[in-house]
Amino acid sequence: MKILYVDDEADIRIIVGMALRLDPGLDVKMAESGPDALRLLDAGAWTPDLALIDMMMPEMSGGEVLAALRHRAGLERLPVVFVTASARRDDIRAWLDLGANGVLTKPFDPMTLASVVRARFAEIAG
Amino acid sequence: MDLPDGIHIVAAFRDVTEREQAEELREQFLSTVSHELRTPLTSIVGALGLLRGGVVADLPVDAKRLVEIAESNATRLIRLVNDLLDIEKLEAGAMTFDFKPFDIRAALSEAAHSMRGLAEARRVVLSADPGDMPVLVRGDSERLVQVASNLLSNAVRFSPEGGVVTLSLEAVSGRVTVSVRDNGPGIDPDLGRRLFTRFAQGRQPAGVSAGTGLGLIISREIVRAHGGRIWHAATGKGALFCFELPVPSAADARETDATSLAPPAMRAEAE
Fold it and tell me: Which site from A25, A53, B255, B267 is most exposed, i.e. has the minimal number of CB atoms within 10 Å?
């Protein structure tokens, strides 16, 4: 299963990368911003099954990255889960309304993150 | 303004732009505080969690213990941030509630499930018996899980090893009462009087991470928003915390006179 993780926080990218790679069945790539993620996807060599996108990023917010993905051929239906350090319910509700398939709140237990992500994906895939 | 037939119209206008701007600034501030505090804490908890999990290397026993202490305190900081944000929202009247009819047994089961790990770590038996019949209430399920989790967390943390925490539910004549009982040292009378104030905490048993001292006050406000009340009952042994919710519609619940919901005597009410 291929996962794209997009987050502007380098420390969190390192931790999430280590946590997800505990599951050898996960092929994980990182992007440090929305434009970086879109460049990777536009290159077309690698298409994820699921994108985990931090919501609050400079340049492009998670919502803007999602909107851009929905306009790209072949990625319109890519499952997207927003990752956020905000626990505010109003924020979470608003982001789901943008069309995200789920919201994962920080902090998370790194030892169980891979199974949480797999479970989320199974829910989305139905 | 005078109109024919002796009708007078008096109009008052108030520019609320400034108030709305202040509210927007407050919202932005809260959002920023939440994000800026939780982001570094996420890195800290994540890094420590990976170390504790032995991902990098097997740690010597003492090192592992130190990592656990650091992780537990970072987690406590996150709870404190969450609780302070909740308090701020409650005091500003800005906490939103999503009132819907639901079976409160589901919320209680979820709260009990979330406390299993803590109970096992403390070697405390957690017994939840919400009954076999659905008990419908109208409320915010997620917030009521928060209340039940808070009471259970307190009970488990203050229980001795081998202690028993019991969660029960009673539905009688239009009211639902949830009770959490433990067989810990109980609440001394002085603390009992201050229980529902900020940062009031009992003496933590050795090796137990402290709470934030805000859980009960948040729980009280959540329960009140549901037209109910929460209290600590003097049992003579252990501690017993209960919260009671009216079963009728949310509209009825809001209009219900709080005194008509007064629980029987022997209770230190949350004020």
Answer: A25
Q: Chain A interface, mutation test: which of B43, B48, B140, B145, most A Cβ atoms within 10 Å?
A: B43
| 3-state SS, residue A60 | coil
pLDDT at A98 over 60: yes
Classify B248 in phi/psi space as left (phi over 0), alpha (psi -120 to 50) or beta. Answer: beta
A&B contacts, CB < 8 Å: 66
Question: Cα-flanking dihedrals φ and ψ of residue A84, to 5°?
Answer: -145, 145
Contacts of A90 in chain B (CB under 8 A): 96
Dump pLDDT digits (tens) for B138-160: 999 989 999 999 999 999 988 98
Q: Judge contact between B197 and B216, C-beta under 8 A.
A: no
B160 interfaces chain A, CB cutoff of 8 Å: no
Quote the mean pLDDT of chain B: 82
Closest residue in chain B to residue A16, using alpha carbons only: B46
Q: How far is A88 from chain B (nearest CA, A)?
A: 8
Overall fold of domain B100-269: Heat Shock Protein 90 (3.30.565)
Please state which CATH number belongs to domain B17-91.
1.10.287
Considering only B182-186, B237-241, B256-260, which range has the smallest mean pLDDT? B256-260
Report the residue of A5, A7, A9, A11 to disrupt the B interface, i.e. the one with the largest count of B CBs within 10 Å. A11
User: Domain-by-domain residue ranges, chain B?
Assistant: 17-91, 100-269
Domain residues for A116? 2-125
Q: Tokens standing for B221? A: 């406000």
Secondary structure of residue B125 in the 3-state scheme: strand
Strand order in the sheet with A2-6: A27-31, A2-6, A50-54, A80-84, A102-105
Please check whether residue B82 touches A, CB under 8 A. yes
| Complex confidence, ipTM | 0.86
Query: Is residue B39 within 8 angstroms of chain A, CB to CB?
Result: yes
Beta-carbon-side half-sphere exposure of residue B36 (alpha carbons within 13 Å): 6
Contacts of B28 in chain A (CB under 8 A): none
Q: What is the pLDDT, as a whole number, of residue A99?
A: 87
Which residues in chain A are closer than 8 Å to B78, comparing Cβ atoms? 107
